[in-house]
Amino acid sequence: MDSLLWLSRLISYDTTSHRSNLSLIHDVEAWLMSNGIESYLTYDESGEKANLIATIPGNKQSEQGGLMLSGHTDVVPVDSQTWKTNPFVATPLEDKIYGRGTCDMKGFLAVMLSLVPEFKNMSLAKPIYLALSYDEEVGCHGAAKFIPELIKKNIKPEACIVGEPTNMDVVSAHKGITVFHCVIQGLAAHSSLTPKGCNAIEYSAKLITYIRALADELKQNGPFDADFDVPFTSISTNKIAGGIANNIVPEHCEFWFECRYLPQMSWQMVYEKIQNYIQKELQPQMQKEFPKASITLQALASVPAFSASDNSPIISSAREALANNKVHKVAYATEAGLFEKANIPTIICGPGSIEQAHKPDEFITLDQLRQCENFLRLIVKKICVYK
After folding, report:
1. Which of 63, 75, 121, 304 has the most CB atoms in a 10 Å sphere around its CB?
2. What pairs with residue 129 in β-bridges?
3. What mean pLDDT is reported for the chain?
4. Do 325 and 185 lie in a common domain?
């Protein structure tokens, strides 16, 4: 089955992150089995989502070395977006294929799966691993679960390619991301009697202002890395809720903010500064008005930053296979940081543009799919085939 047929098949499954991905996973599992390749599935707590790991073995039947090809099966929602095509039907128009997930990142998965029979017929000295995960779009939960399984099974790839859309350039680093949730609990009162209440929204505003000042400080003073399009650690408050009526001093407010941090930083550095301000300044101010007032700050989801070693063999091999010296760093987060932390040398390289991801009328070009096919053939030959 060629990559366009596989892409059409994958797009037809609505694997939005709040839905199950099992229909897609079982379809891939059956295809691999028909090619004599067994799969290993790991499930989330609900049993409604699964990761798939499959091995195309080398001639020595070893599970050491070789290449892992990794991609996520979930996609972002299409709710409230206006599409000119059905987002869950792969629609060819001119030199593009439209549909949710075409570039992020079912295009890569389609190419990878279409090449399975070809990979099997190569004289493999080392194994090829195929890794499909769930819930990357909401925190890389699937990859975080199957990496311990790799360790348990003593599977140690010498390299990994995460096929996120990079226009088929090599990406060697990305920022980490942590999402925080803050809850402010004050005391309700009639708005004509404001001194009797403790206004949770106003104290939230003070904290948000402090967070913005911290973000401005990082923007001005760094640390910096000029290779990123946003060359500093950024923080932004993106959602807030509080209050129940115009004439009631609000007792409750909560908001969410995210930190996208450079690889040389950590989210804990930001958390500690904000927590210090809460504990030493803001919460004592609130408790003068209402002794039981509280502020709770929690890290909800975190994806580690990724930075490949400059002398990583997978970078040089990928550049040779692509005949392209471009190596980039990006602001968006992927599963690559989890693989790198597990001591699996990793790069990000896949078809399509991140500028198309998550938008209505998401598409991938036929040329990008062809480039990906050629790249995967060459990189497998470089790493896994007898010389």
Report:
1. 75
2. 55, 68
3. 95
4. no
